[in-house]
Amino acid sequence: MSLSSNALTTLAKLQQYLDYGDTGDTGTASLWEDFIEDASDRVRSYLGYDPFGDTESDELYDGNGMTRLPIRKRPITALSGIKLDDTSIDVSTFEIRDWYIDGLTYRFIEGNSNYKVSYTHGYGDTLGAIPYAIQLAALKLAALDVLESGKKGYLGISSVTSSGGGSKTYVDKDADKVLEKIEVYRRETW
Fold first, then answer.
1. Are 75 and 129 in contact (CB under 8 A)?
2. What are the residue ranges spanned by the domains of the chain?
3. pTM
4. How many CB atoms lie within 10 A of CB 147?
5. Which residues contact residue 114 at a Cβ distance below 8 angstroms, ignoring those fewer than 6 apart?
6. Where are the beta strands (DSSP E) in 13-151?
7. pLDDT digits over 69-117, tens only?
């Protein structure tokens, strides 16, 4: 097995993080890749979107009477359409921000599901484009799964004492705490 193109970390990074070196056999590598895929799915689920990006068509929004309309998935990279009650509005009159559409002088008329927005979002199509905090969350979640499976490895920070001895300090043993660290990237919910 090999990792999917939307995995949020790599097998090499997981091995390095756990101070494990080579997994040794294809069965272990395959299992660790499964942990990476699962961790990536959990991060995407927590965020409410795929950080690599996607295109949304006619996503419903409530007008809020303001000049800004918060969008659920981020960052917005292109705006292809806005409709008010199925009537198209010229998208060139709006500016795209990270997580909202700025109407500048246009006010989004208050109403329930009265706007349909079509847009593209995401950080890019390579792992390097994804914010490191998101990658690290997937890495730590996968490491927790490895440790729970009973495979050798260490989750933590290496240090050397003044007497020259080494030690390991365990950190982030709780998946919820790992995910809390990427709260700022989570989709807007309302």
1. no
2. 11-49+129-185, 54-121
3. 0.78
4. 17
5. 61, 62, 63, 84, 85
6. 54-63, 68-70, 76-84, 87-89, 95-96, 100-102, 111-121
7. 999 888 999 999 999 999 999 999 999 998 899 999 999 999 999 999 9
